[in-house]
């Protein structure tokens, strides 16, 4: 069965290793790589790998974006600028918001039914931007738009195994809820599988490391960007989860991701009430043939996690509104 995936920002620090991992995915038959620079070389290089996907490069000229997106079933967007030391993800808004708005406008026009996986920061605002653009084009389906927060999940599994060193980091699962920036990243360590006990000191230190894991990489790269290789792994993992549920019909595929809560219409009101009325939030999402199948509630959490959640909700309100306002002001 043909399955076309388009990567926008494919020549970048994330785009290249992500495209490599996607090229190794034998469910994908057509890998369209779009960027404003350097993408023909990336595509030529990847096209020599002996896996089924046909790799094609697109630059903006000759209707490149239109041709890259046409008939895509899945679109992954790591386009835009990364952080330098001292910056917050929100500092990227002024450049990345316009890039995401324009790519979303093209996707809403040329592949309105594709699953949209948004990596570009600030995710807490770029996902609402995509949603608002799709609404304005009359093609909005909240089940199909995802903010990729998988790196928080990947990191947290690894960081837990650093302090409880007999735990297999591949097997450990921690629901990460909220959003994708500092205090909006809320790891629910009380719900870790397999079950673990943490002292309050351990929980505080681990939570801080998970919330600021991105900063560790930004500082280590010292001006040369932010996480790219771990992000490529995380992006490929989330893409595979979507492909498994939507193309292969696998059941029980659950990954935390930042989504519109209305995507689970049966539970939307209760979910929104649990996060002070926010319309977007990262929660563990069960994926199904149409994308979001069911959004898991926050569940039972301890006093420390309640404190974290209250802080996250306050920040997220502003981040989400900023995205909505940006699209409204662009009209
Ligand atoms: N969601 C997450 O967990 C993470 C998100 N990120 C974010 O991902 C984004 C990309 O990061 P990197 O790959 O390190 O940056 P990068 O600068 O290495 O690559 C970005 C690519 O986007 C391309 N680009 C710029 N404008 C474009 C447009 N209008 N259309 C298509 N392509 C365009 C650039 O030419 C470049 O190749 C950043 O915003 C970063 O903050 C990074 C790590 C984790
Ligand atoms: O920290 C950054 O700017 C990139 C990112 O989102 C992450 O690594 O989680």
TrEMBL record:
Q: Name the chain's protein.
A: Malate dehydrogenase
Q: What positions does the entry give for NAD(+) binding?
A: 9-15, 35, 96, 119-121, 231
Q: Does the keyword Nucleotide-binding apply?
A: no
Which EC class heads this enzyme's classification? oxidoreductase
Catalysed reaction(s) here are: (S)-malate + NAD(+) = oxaloacetate + NADH + H(+)
Q: Its quaternary structure?
A: Homodimer.
Ranges where the Lactate/malate dehydrogenase N-terminal domain occurs = 4-147
Instruction: Give the InterPro entries listed for this entry.
Output: L-lactate/malate_DH, Lactate/malate_DH_C, Lactate/malate_DH_N, Lactate_DH/Glyco_Ohase_4_C, Malate_DH_AS, Malate_DH_type1, NAD(P)-bd_dom_sf
Q: Under which EC number(s) is this enzyme classified?
A: 1.1.1.37
Which residues carry out catalysis?
Answer: 180 (proton acceptor)
């Amino acid at each position: 069965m043909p399955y076309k995936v388009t990567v926008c920002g494919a020549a970048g620090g994330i785009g290249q290793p992500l495209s490599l991992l996607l090229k190794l995915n034998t469910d994908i038959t057509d890998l369209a790589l779009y960027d404003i620079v350097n993408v023909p070389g990336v595509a030529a290089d990847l096209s020599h790998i002996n896996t089924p996907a046909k790799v094609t490069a697109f630059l903006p000229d000759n209707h490149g974006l239109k041709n890259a997106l046409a008939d895509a079933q899945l679109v992954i967007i790591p386009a835009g600028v990364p952080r330098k030391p001292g910056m917050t993800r929100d500092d990227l808004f002024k450049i990345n918001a316009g890039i995401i708005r324009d790519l979303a406008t093209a996707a809403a026009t040329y592949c309105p039914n594709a699953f949209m996986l948004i990596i570009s920061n600030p995710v807490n605002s770029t996902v609402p931007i995509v949603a608002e653009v799709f609404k304005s084009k009359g093609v909005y389906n909240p089940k199909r738009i995802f903010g990729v927060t998988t790196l928080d999940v990947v990191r947290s599994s690894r960081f837990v195994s650093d302090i409880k060193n007999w735990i297999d980091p591949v097997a450990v699962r921690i629901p990460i809820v909220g959003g994708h920036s500092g205090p909006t990243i809320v790891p629910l360590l009380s719900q870790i599988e397999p079950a673990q006990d943490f002292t309050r000191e351990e929980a505080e230190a681990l939570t801080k490391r998970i919330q600021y894991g991105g900063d560790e990489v930004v500082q280590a790269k010292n001006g040369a960007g932010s996480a790219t290789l771990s992000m490529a792994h995380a992006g490929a993992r989330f893409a595979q989860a979507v492909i498994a549920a939507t193309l292969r019909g696998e059941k029980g595929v659950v990954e935390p991701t930042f989504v519109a809560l209305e995507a689970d219409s049966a539970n939307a009101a209760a979910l929104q009430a649990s996060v002070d009325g926010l319309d977007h939030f990262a929660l563990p999402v069960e994926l199904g043939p149409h994308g979001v199948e069911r959004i898991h509630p926050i569940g039972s959490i301890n006093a420390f996690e309640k404190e974290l959640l209250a802080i996250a909700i306050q920040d997220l309100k502003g981040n989400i509104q900023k995205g909505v306002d940006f699209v409204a002001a662009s009209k």
